UniProtKB/TrEMBL annotation:
Membrane-spanning residues: 12-32, 44-63, 75-95, 101-122, 129-148, 160-177, 189-208, 220-239, 246-264, 270-288
Domain (EamA): residue spans on this chain: 19-145, 159-287
Cellular component annotations (GO), alphabetically ordered: membrane
Native species: uncultured Sphingosinicella sp
Topology within the bilayer: Multi-pass membrane protein
Name of the protein in question: EamA domain-containing protein
Record family assignment: Belongs to the drug/metabolite transporter (DMT) superfamily. 10 TMS drug/metabolite exporter (DME) (TC 2.A.7.3) family.
Annotated compartments: Membrane
Pfam families listed in its UniProt record: EamA (PF00892)
Xref: InterPro entries: EamA_dom, EmrE-like
Keyword field contains Glycosyltransferase: no
Keyword list, A-Z: Membrane, Transmembrane, Transmembrane helix
């Protein structure tokens, strides 16, 4: 098998693993939506990440893994803190918005990342990418129009705004994700993400934390296992294939969200949500194809 064929096979395997990771994350989203409705987004995240950190600690210390170097730890800390803010906004919004609509709105993250790259990395935004971003944001307006016509109420509007804010944070997370995967193994990434997020949530535990009822423990445990497993799968995949090749796998989450939302929450996908999601996905694909992926600076990871 030639080198090019091996590379294509490796990319295909990485795409399959990433798809499995997205599926696991989608099921976790459904569990977390149920928990957020029952015990609140903060408590759902606190107990899920704590359970995930305990699972990760058993593997990390059980294998006698080495503590990460300072520069690696800085990336873990930055992404963990960022993910804590991103997660609380997303799951607070998800408790108020249909799953398919929430995922569709979150798809704008790659488009926001274009402008973050211009600000943080001083990259020039091409005209093609600007037009793609306009198409994507038009898709957001279409989704909001459908929400207004369906009269989902002010809570759904606030939830949608929270999800868009989460997408803005995830845009920066995209920049960090591949760098982190190149610096650390899947087990280390999953453990430190769970650990740092848990520490962040514990900072306000004296004011907000409540012990979950016994009936919620199985869902919390399952969500923790799925989140931890998904982080490992995605980290493994992003370490073996360029982000531009794996980006399309993110859009499979819309299918999962539509199916799981209907099964568990009797949510029907609005026609305008489908139209808006399609516009955003096309915009992201156009933007992603504008040029070869930029090589990260070895000193900064950006």
């Amino acid at each position: 098998m030639t080198g090019e064929a091996l590379k294509q096979t490796s990319t295909a395997v990485a795409f399959g693993v990433a798809s499995l990771g997205i599926a696991a994350f989608s099921v976790m989203d459904a569990l977390m939506k149920g928990l957020s409705l029952d015990i609140g987004a903060y408590n759902a995240l606190l107990w899920r990440t704590l359970a995930g950190a305990l699972i990760g600690a058993a593997f990390f210390f059980g294998r006698r893994s080495l503590w990460p170097r300072r520069e690696v730890m800085k990336v873990h800390l930055l992404r963990g803190i960022l993910s804590s803010l991103m997660a609380i906004l997303f799951f607070w919004g998800l408790a108020r918005v249909p799953m398919a609509q929430a995922i569709a709105l979150a798809f704008v993250a790659p488009l926001i990342a274009l402008y973050l790259a211009a600000i943080l990395l001083h990259e020039k935004i091409e005209r093609r990418a600007i037009l793609a971003s306009l198409l994507g944001f038009a898709g957001v307006i279409v989704i909001f129009t459908g929400q207004a016509e369906a009269d989902l109420g002010p809570d759904a509007f606030r939830g949608s705004i929270a999800i868009l804010a989460s997408a803005g944070l995830y845009a920066y997370n995209i920049i960090l994700m591949r760098r982190q995967a190149q610096l650390a193994g899947p087990m280390e990434v999953a453990f430190f993400m769970s650990l740092i997020m848990t520490i962040c949530f514990l900072l306000v535990a004296p004011f907000l934390a409540e012990l979950p009822a016994a009936e919620h423990v199985p869902s919390i445990a399952a969500a923790a296992v799925l989140a931890f497993g998904s982080l490992m799968l995605l980290s493994w995949a992003y370490a073996r294939a360029e982000a531009q090749h794996l980006a399309p796998v993110e859009y499979t989450s819309f299918i999962w969200a539509a199916v799981l939302g209907f099964i568990f929450f009797n949510e029907r996908v609005l026609t305008l949500t489908l139209v808006g999601a399609a516009m955003i996905i096309v915009a992201c694909l156009i933007a992603a194809s504008r040029r070869p992926a930029r090589v990260a600076d070895p000193e900064t990871g950006l």
